[in-house]
Amino acid sequence: MIPFEPIRLFAFGGFNVPIVISLLIIGGGMLWLLIRSLKAKEVDRRIVFVFIFAAVSAPLLFEITFDETATPIVKGVFEKIENMPERSRIVIAFDFDPAMAPEVQPMANAVIRHALAKNHRLIFISLWATGQALMDKTISEIIPAEFPQKQDGIDYVSLGYKAGNEGVLNVIVSNVKKMFPTDVNGVPLTDIAIFNGVRSMKDVDMVMAVGGGKPGPKEWVLFVGDAPGGPPVAVGVAAVVAPQMYPYYPKQVLGILGGIKGAAEYESELLHNYPRFAEQDTPGLRMMGPQTLAHVVIMAFIIFGNLAFFIGGRHKEKRL
Amino acid sequence: MKRSSLLVLAVVVILFAISWILKANQLSATEENYILEAFLITFAAFLTLSVLSFLYKDNPFYKFAEHLFVGVSAAFWMCLGFWSTLVKNLIPRLSEGLSEFFNEPYMPGDYNFFFWIPVILGILLLMRLSKEHGWIARWPLAFIVGTTAGLNFVRYLRSDFIEQISATFVPLLIEWQGVGHFFSNFNLAIDGQFVMMLSNWVIFVGVMCGLIYFFFSKEHTGVFGTASRVGIWILMITFGASFGYTVMGRISLLVGRLTFLFKDWLGLIS
Questions:
Q1: How many CB atoms lie within 10 A of CB A59?
Q2: Do B245 and A242 touch (CB under 8 A)?
Q3: Quick one: which of B2, B262, B235 has its CA closest to A57?
Q4: How many residue pairs bridge chain A and chain B with CB atoms within 8 Å of each other?
């Protein structure tokens, strides 16, 4: 990937051609729009879409990305996993669907890699029917390839999907086997090593709830984390839901991975501490290039719109 | 159908076929079912572009993708409701014969007479399909509303009310040893004294002013009015932050779709 270093853009012999071309095209177009706005001329909404498309496509095609530093709210999750004793049991909830996956799947991947690298044990669970397929795909893509020594039932287990929404959480907080008599492969929980000594969710060491709808991370906090004797809960949520989760931090949740920015920060922290993952795909970090450029374009449009509004004299028009 | 519409349809069909052939050719070296795989990727790309075409203007391709999505979703959730709720959750606890029929492990230890109650309520819900006896469906609906409210009441009261009030009681002076000490050790570190105290003050002032804004038993004038206006600013900043997060979420989804188009379909990025 090409790191974005503004100083290098115009340094003799060292500037980055794709980045400069992208910026020239987008910047030139924006300048034209600014002039048009100042003349109080209408700008078709489809032109806005074209700019957003260009701002998202260019960093993807030229693999432009940015460095990220983990904020305390993300570090809280990372450090909890990092500092727990080996063989701790972590529940990873896949409460999302393919539509939400671009945002939250990178979080799940990074947390799984981190937890397995620390030799923790993972229990996968989903309250969303669409989550099970994504969970199976994640397990089959990451564990055999990157952690071939890890064994199903000993180092990780998938309980699959269970219908019942919050009702499922309400039961497993006091008795897991009542809701999940077997794992996803039909093996009774009594025969699975991970569940030795685990009666309820209160017996696991941590819950990492990844999702963004209902039931989702919020329900894990309400029904499991806040239950008397409940395990600490960390959440990885879609950006739309992140503001709703902030009031729970730091008392009710360990940390929040909010949207793709949270995922990128976690990936950055993981790469910093575990260079062995440098060869793995880091979709969170990869998506921050398009995110940044798209945000710059959106902010520019907001400024242009306001300039046109005030300079064009429309603010003087009487409103109903 | 207009001639121009037919022309567009023909172009799309030809482009689809070309894309399918090229993709199949590309996948033939690595995939066993490369023709089907190529079709699925091409069709997914077609649907993505059809949905995005709405940004230009409403059109039949968008309508097709929209209706396909609605239809498939409805069927998917209906089947899922049957197999995951009735077959997986209920039948193994009620009937050995039906469990064998559906190839589900029978759970005789879990049998409970009360499981028949949701069966009866579930059947009553279907009475809504009848014009004459539709009112009966209100009874199970009332049961659902009542139990959900009851279950959630305790959780929300604890987590969203008591815990939140408790979280608002934050120290406004942290490690305070006098003004001189504060300024001599002043720094902007995120875990420093100043930033932590500022955060706690923002929480305190934000909550108080937000509550005052929603307090309508006293006229919003004087100091009370000022606090109310600060409250509305706090609310606006909160809505702005929410909107910012929403924009980030939508851009992420767009990045996800464009990554699919550039990587899986066109093979432009690795």
A1: 27
A2: yes
A3: B262
A4: 120
Q: What number of other Cβ atoms are within 10 A of residue B210's Cβ?
A: 19
What are the tokens at B40? 């699925």
**What DSSP line would sit under chain A, residue for residue?**
-EE--HHHHTSTTT--HHHHHHHHHHHHHHHHHHHHHHTT----HHHHHHHHHHHHHHHHHTTEE------HHHHHHHHHHHHSPTT-EEEEEEE--TTTHHHHHHHHHHHHHHHHHTT-EEEEEESSHHHHHHHHHHHHHHHHHH-TT--BTTTEEEEEE-S-THHHHHHHTT-HHHH-SB-TTS-BGGG-GGGTT--SGGGSSEEEEEESSSSSHHHHIIIIITSTTPPPEEEEE-TTTHHHHGGGTTTT-S-EEEHHHHHHHHHHHHHHH-GGGGGS--HHHHHHHHHHHHHHHHHHHHHHHHHHHHHTTGGGSPP-
* Candidate from B77, B238, B255 with C-beta closest to A56: B255
Cα-flanking dihedrals φ and ψ of residue A318, to 5°?
Answer: -75, 135
Q: How far is the C-alpha of B170 from the C-alpha of B175, rounded, in Å?
A: 13
**pLDDT tens digits, one per residue of A156-178:** 999 999 988 888 999 999 999 98
Per-residue pLDDT band for A2 (boundaries 50, 70, 90) equals: very low
Instruction: Give bridge partners of residue A156 from the DSSP assignment.
Output: A122, A152
Which tokens sit at A29?
A: 């177009």
Question: Angle at the Cα of B211 (from B209 to B212), degrees rounded to 5?
Answer: 65
Best mutation target, A44, A48, A57, to test chain B (most B CBs within 10 A): A57
- Tell me the CA end-to-end span of chain A in Å, nearest whole number: 53
d(CA A195, CA A175): 12
Helix (H, G, I), strand (E, B) or coil at B102: coil
Number of Cβ within 10 Å of residue B206's Cβ equals 18
Q: Which amino acid is at B109?
A: G
Copy the structure tokens of residue B161.
């009310």
Chain A: residue nearest B103 by CA? A186
**How large is the average pLDDT for residues A21-37?**
80
What tens digit of pLDDT does each residue of B251-260 get? 999 999 999 9
pTM score of the predicted model = 0.86
Contact B254 A63 (CB under 8 A): no
| Per-domain boundaries in chain B | 3-127, 171-265
CB A107 within 8 A of CB A263: yes
CB-based contact, A84 to chain B, within 8 Å:
no
B267 φψ region: left (φ > 0), alpha (ψ -120 to 50), beta (else): left
Query: Cβ(B91)–Cβ(B102) under 8 Å?
Result: yes
Contact residues, chain A, for B160 at CB < 8 Å? 222
